[in-house]
Every structure is written in structure tokens, then in C-alpha cells.
Amino acid sequence: MNTFKNLWFLDPTADKPYINDIAVRIRAGLLLIIPLYMSFTLYEAIFGSHWIVTGNLIKDTFDTDFDGHILYSVEAIRRTVEYSKQTMLLWYALFEMLSGMFVFTSRLSPTVLISSFLAKNHEPVWKPLTPKRFAWTIGASFISVCLIFFNPEVFAGWVNTIAGHQWLPTTANYMPKWIPLVLVWVCFGFMWMETVMGFCVGCKVHSLLVKLGWLQEECEACNNLSWNVKT
């Protein structure tokens, strides 16, 4: 009951909450399947065949191309791929990234609840929530880019409506294919390091921005300060 009440928070009522880093790492491992699945989906979408052979008859044209390859005549159609499942999965991933940022919305996240229960028998490692919010914001931005890649016409419709003119095309994907592919693998790498090594890249970037004076809030955990927590 105490885990269900507090989840991974040291004190849910605190102005600057602290969360159990053990549970955070478990949650990253649970969510790791999403970028892995999306990486294979993007690879198939970008590098996979764009044609589907529909006929059983393949005819030799008795002709060759400039490289000496034999040309054949086949019945084929251009492949069209529907990404509704991937879109729903990305929306769920975006929900997970955003829900973990606040105490109230964390209670709506299944992975926060599961990871909190899985971590309850381990010695907690308390770290501030603010750097994690920054890291999850980076993840949310990556997911948003992938959503636009899979739904270019929808996003173009929104932008064109707001702009009042045809600013983005609605019949072609205007985003370079390498962008979501790279972002997915970067996201996978970040989550793998969080899960296996306990290394939060977003937290380190947050700490760097604090030292540069671009962010005001201090990242205690990233600066290796020691805290004695009374339980």
C-alpha cells in the first residue's frame, strides 16, 4: 500500500520531489522495447522493397541494361504501408515520457506503477526529479519527430491551416528519412545506458546547462553531492 501511495517518490508532497533511481532504470528497461520495435519498422520502411510482385509469371525480355544485367518483365504493384499501429505505440510512448514528469500524472502511468513495485525490495537511490524531466523532454521531442514522419499529411494539414497557405506538401513526406532512423537509435542508446549502466545522458546535459548558467535549478545528483535521507 505504501508503494501504491508514494510510487517511486520519496515524498510526493515535496516542492522538489525525489524519485527512486532504481525504479527509473527498471522503467527504462520496460520501455526499451518501443525504440527497438520502431527501429526495425523504420529500417523496413526506408530500406525495404517498395514493390510487391503480384503475378506468378516472370518473362525474360531478352534485353540487358547498361551494366549487363538481364531484364525481366513481372507484374508488380508499389507497396503502400499503413502505420496506425506504430502511431498508436508512439502516442503511448509520448504519454509515458510526459506522465513521469509530475506526481499526479505519474499515477496514470502503468510503467511507473510496475517499476515501483519491482524496485520496492531494493535499497532506494534517491535523485532529484528535475534532471529526469529534462531527459524525458528530450525523449518526448524524439517521439514527436517520429510521429511527424509517420503522419506527414496530418501535421502538414495543421501547419497549413495555422499558416493560412500551403507551407508544407500534403502528398509527399518532406522529412528526410535518416532523421527518425537516427533519432530512434539514439533514443535506444540513451535508454540502454540508463537501464544497464545507470547513466542518464539527459541528466548530464542538464547538469552542463546548469554550470553554463542557462538553467537555474541545481542538479544535486549530477554534481555528486552526498545526501543523508531519513526514512
Class from helix and strand fractions: mainly alpha
> The biggest beta sheet, please?
2 strands, antiparallel
Cα shape: elongated
Q: Averaged pLDDT, please?
A: 86
Give the strand content: 5-15%
Q: What is the quaternary state of this protein?
A: single chain
Which regions contain 5 or more consecutive residues with pLDDT less than 50? 223-227
Helix and strand sequence: HEHHEEEEHHHEHHHH
Short structural summary:
Helix content is 55%, strand content 10%. It is mainly alpha-helical and 231 residues long. The protein has one domain.
3D architecture notes:
α2 packs across α9, α3 runs antiparallel to α9 and α7 crosses α8. The protein has one domain. 55% of the residues lie in helices and 10% in strands. Strands 1-6 form a two-stranded antiparallel ribbon. Strands 2-5 form a two-stranded antiparallel ribbon. With 231 residues, it is mostly helical. The chain is elongated, with a radius of gyration of 24 Å. The longest helix has 22 residues. It has 10 helices and 6 strands.
What descriptors fit this protein?
231 residues, mainly alpha, two-stranded antiparallel ribbon, 10% strand
Question: Secondary-structure blueprint of this entry?
Answer:
Elements: H1 2-6, E1 18-20, H2 21-31, H3 33-47, E2 51-53, E3 59-64, E4 70-73, E5 76-78, H4 84-99, H5 103-106, H6 110-119, E6 126-128, H7 129-150, H8 152-163, H9 178-197, H10 201-211
Antiparallel strand pairs: 1-6, 2-5, 3-4
Helix pairs in contact: 2-6, 2-9, 3-9, 4-7, 7-8, 7-9, 7-10
